[in-house]
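Hi Y.,

Following your request, here is the sequence exactly as I used it, all 365 residues.
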Amino acid sequence: MKNVEAFPDSDEVRDGSIAFDQNERFNDMLDDGDLGEYALTLKRPDGTESPIPSISRALFYADRPTYSALLNEQNALERKRTLRLEGFPTNEAVFERLQMLVRRQAIVLPFIGAGFSVAAGCPSWRSYVVQQAIKGGMDEATTKLRLQAGEHELVMDEVIAAQTLDVFTREFRSAFENPRIDPSRSPSTELIDLFGGAVITTNFDRVLENCHQEVRRPFTEKVVGNEDSYRFIKAAFQGEKYLLKLHGNIDDQKNRVLTRQEYDQSYANDRPVPRTLMRVFASFSIVFLGCSLIADRYLSSLKDVFEQNRESMPDHFAILTAPDDEQELRVRDQFLASHGISPIWYSEGDWDAPGEILQLLKQER
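Below is the corresponding structure, written out as tokens. Let me know if you'd prefer a different format.
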């Protein structure tokens, strides 16, 4: 008679436990009945029966094919939900291109905008500018329309003129550097174990830096866009944890890029900012996160690089809010394509989407 091994050997148990524990969320859903009324019963020699509480663990070790089938089915549903495929079916192909780069350990640089600080408790940059415009006596509806039309720099100049730069700087610190801000709530936390090297940001706030500091993974160096060197480029190639604060800090007048005059000076053709950006865009894949990508000055540098290097250009990506109107969405998509950017869309107000998409990228890498 053939002996039946009741339990796998210790190595199999050890390996199996690792695989089992990696599916904690699925296991909890199965045990809690969220995936249907599955039940297992222990039948004793005396005829009494009792339910087995951990259905997931029992299935994992006793009926691996059933466990795997249920897990694969749930993962497929979760992937569809996370990528918002019901509303944006093109997201999957774009996600898988980004996923391929991550799996191959290619250099991918996150480019972080103000939207990634909102979850931490910071106001959105647009709403903050509107609020400050109102304080300066400007019309709210007109200001919103102008920002939507891409007149960000002009509006900023008028807001600062109405308030004075000293008042604007003081108000900024109150809104973006206060104890109520919690960096751990920002989707920036998902970047730490996903993209381990250099990062670019246009943000004046310090949410991104504090996220990395809190988990003891601080940036080795912080570089400003107006620095006339290629330290950041070299660090990116070497996988070092450098942060490029493209527009500096709001209290650093020498390196800050805030007013229209400061934009004109910093983005002139012979200046470090566009030179650095053109090297970055031509050399590395970028994933834009929390960026509006409407009238940002750095897009001019990106478009120039794309038009000059279409065949050799690295893939660039964005996790981005989609316009509600279908025609506007098509126009927006065409604009991004003309800059070499492939978007992963989510709906306005669905602020959990970027973090969930990054989590999925981390899980499936």
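The chain is about 45% helix and 10% strand.

Thanks again,
Q.
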